[in-house]
Design brief:
This protein is an all-alpha fold. The chain has six helices and no strands.
Length: about 140
């Protein structure tokens, strides 16, 4: 048992490190892509920004977890992880540019409903995306 554990530990560490790197990169790029500054707003106690970013991040993490569980190698996981990130970025673009043009300013103003809506849509799309990523 110990031999198996020691043999698979490097794989776990590689996948986990790659997943954390993807998560940090996603959060960074997402915060750059939105007109409002989620982290600053969250530091100020803005619940709308917290709901939005949390839902969106979970909407990214669920498909990433599915990809990790089903990928054939680390490169496969990284490629599909990038797809998961791009889909979540696309969700915000569609909502903010085409459906509700003022949603970013509403989140910055602390409108919890707006933050919950964006986060909830991101979470729902992430769940659908995860189901589509299973071979």
């Amino acid at each position: 048992m110990l031999e198996y554990f020691l043999g698979t530990l490097p794989h776990f560490l590689a996948y986990f490190a790659a997943a954390l790197a993807l998560a940090v990169a996603f959060l960074y790029l997402y915060s750059l892509a939105t007109p409002h500054r989620e982290f600053a707003l969250i530091r100020e106690g803005n619940s709308a920004a917290a709901f939005q970013l949390t839902g969106t991040f979970i909407g990214f993490a669920i498909p990433l977890a599915t990809v990790i569980a089903n990928s054939v190698n680390l490169a496969d996981m990284l490629l599909w992880g990038v797809v998961a990130a791009l889909v979540q970025l696309g969700v915000f673009v569609v909502i903010a540019r085409f459906l509700f043009r003022t949603i970013s300013s509403r989140i910055a103003e602390g409108c919890t409903a707006s933050g919950q809506f964006v986060g909830g849509i991101g979470l729902g799309v992430g769940i659908l995306q995860a189901a589509c990523m299973v071979p």
